[in-house]
Amino acid sequence: SLVEQSKKSAAYQAVDDNLKPSYKIIGIGSGSTVVYVAERIGQLSNKSQFTCIPTGFQSKQLILSNGLKLGSIEEFPNIDITFDGADEIDSDLNVIKGGGACLMQEKLVASCSKKFIIVADFRKKSPTGQLGVNWRKGVPIEIIPASYTKILKELKEFGAVKAEVRSGGSAKAGPVITDNGMFIIDADFGAIPPAEVSKLHNKIKFLTGVVDVGLFVNMVEKTYIGEENGSVSTMG
Ligand code: DER
């Protein structure tokens, strides 16, 4: 499909442009776009020189299924480069992440990375440059399970038009449980101007019970977007 092709083009271009032979430790994100990042690295003749750090169970499987060396963030807290997906990208390169409920380990790995590269299909670039325009599911927030009623109340007091614990849907009765054993709350604040993202992130992050927030502020070095016409555009 056009979307899958655009994911692949963005991911391949990002790896080809940024993966230097001098790099040793590579962070691998989560989701369906980063699948092509792992695939591309798996094609390299010198792939055994890299140690790949996962951002969750699916990411770990990606590393193993592409014959890449698996490392842990405990052993390798200094990461040369991380490639990851995003749910939406604004004009300041802030991103919403957490659509796949992996935001905590994604942010941990990104925070340990010298370079943090986002790869995405054309649906992820915000049409108005504001977060919360195309991505209408809300800001994903990873929380301590026992705190969910308290936090839902506080988020609504903050002005969330909608906030709810992410359900497992037909896959699982009850809430989604993250790789860290936590719940996810999705909180919809409508369109968020780039200048407001940091303030909103900090307000949510400091609520007791919040583990982390799916707003990555001033973390992204460069984005690779696969466009509908088959080209790849970059920002940053
Ligand atoms: O959950 C995340 O942040 C993932 O990176 C995810 O949102 C990316 O999704 P996709 O690559 O499957 O579109």
From TrEMBL:
Q: Which UniProt keywords apply?
A: Isomerase
* Biochemical pathway: Carbohydrate degradation; pentose phosphate pathway; D-ribose 5-phosphate from D-ribulose 5-phosphate (non-oxidative stage): step 1/1
Instruction: Using the record, list the residue span of the signal peptide; answer none if the entry has no such feature.
Output: none
Q: Name one GO cellular component term.
A: cytoplasm
Single GO MF descriptor: ribose-5-phosphate isomerase activity
What family is this protein classified in? Belongs to the ribose 5-phosphate isomerase family.
Q: What is this protein called?
A: Ribose-5-phosphate isomerase
